Automatic annotation (TrEMBL):
SUPFAM superfamilies: Helical backbone' metal receptor (SSF53807). Its EC number is 1.18.6.1. It comes from Magnetospirillum sulfuroxidans. Pfam families: Oxidored_nitro (PF00148). Transmembrane segments: none annotated. It is an enzyme of class 1 (oxidoreductase). This is Nitrogenase protein alpha chain.
Amino acid sequence: MPMVLLNCDKDIPEREKHIYLKVDGEDSRDFLPVSNAQTLPGTLSERGCAFCGAKLVIGGVLKDTIQMIHGPIGCAYDTWHTKRYPTDNGHFNMKYVWSTDMKESHIVFGGEKRLEKSCHEAFDEMPDVKRMIIYTTCPTALIGDDIKAVAKKVMAERPDVDIFTVECPGFAGVSQSKGHHVLNIGWINEKVGQLDAEITSPYTMNFIGDFNIGGDTQLLQQYWDKLGIQVIAHFTGNGTYDDLRRMHKAQLNVVNCARSSGYIANELKKQYGIPRLDIDSWGFSYMAEGIRKICAFFGIEEKGEALLAEEYAKWKPQLDWYKERLKGTKMAIWTGGPRLWHWTKSVEDDLGVQVVAMSSKFGHQEDFEKVIARGQTGTYYIDDGNELEFFEIIDLVKPDVIFTGPRVGELVKKLHIPYVNGHGYHNGPYMGFEGFVNLARDMYNAVHNPLLKLAATDIRTGIATPAKEAAE
Ligand code: CFM
């Protein structure tokens, strides 16, 4: 059932196409929220820009690569250190940020010389680092700076360095989703196939669409090590630039985040004939299913069962402890897109949690198809939700906890509704068996935080009043 939310003076009827309440007996495919469309004038979107999708989400994760952002300093600062993707080499990617720091005169007279100088400065400063990604931003794309030509010139002068360029200014698409696409396609066409891989196992795969948030990649790596599977490239969690040039050497592409990285898996299939296998890495049942699928592909089912038995014995009792205390909790998920369908059924099955509202910043139709197929009835499904709609939804469904980012999270915290960081996590990793226990623990701590019981807030006025529990 399509919905318009009215918690503002002037409602926007076109938003009706973006909000859906799932009810019994309807064919949900008839009512998928419109998605991946331009944000409507008059609503305040919490989307990121296309440049951010390329840099912050995918490229900036690499642990050995200078990220040269050709633009004003804000583009660099705002995509630096706002996401938690550690690495096993001391978090090089989170320590540094590089920018050409464009000023008015460079916009007027052109910024290519400045970019060239910045590239040399960066390599001189860090003599051990030989890899770089250069990104355009809105102003440098508008003035037509040729970053590919600059990269070529720098590489000609420094034969030991390699540079990849991403031409995806902020305005290139309706959301950060465009940046994922541009980086995926650029990489497969320009860099994959350049280096050979040293094969050390009869079983090889790439793990695609996992960005080592809170250490996810490193946790899952323990499973692949135990199973004897060699990961040729991690796209891009804890990954290296050169490993990504070897992706064509793997026998299998395992995809976790289909939204951000399905494109490269599809191209690897098309160009190199490598099969694509999609799995969910969050939740016990899903993770087990994923491991079984991977092991079946390689014919190592027994090893898989042994690993699962070990992991279940270790972590299932802890999960059940939380399930006992969390069942019936009402949860809202307001993140990018895929985590809606990855999480809704896993929290329901593994923790007895009911997901009452989900909002996706940039998911496409295929994301909504999956999320509505897996989600419950009585739940709201929203595309590109805005703050006023979030207030309305909170009023309607009264969630006990919201998984979202710090921006919206700080907002709901003022309403004394607990939030857990659904993007960077509170205390990750959240993937795998141990990770899902961490997620349950963070949810439990949030829901039972005694501070939040001390006062209640009227959502419309924002005025805090002592809660009943506090008065008693
Ligand atoms: Fe994939 Fe991601 Fe997500 Fe995402 Fe993102 Fe993210 Fe996300 Mo924040 S790649 S689409 S663009 S799973 S940063 S690690 S959490 S919005 S749902």
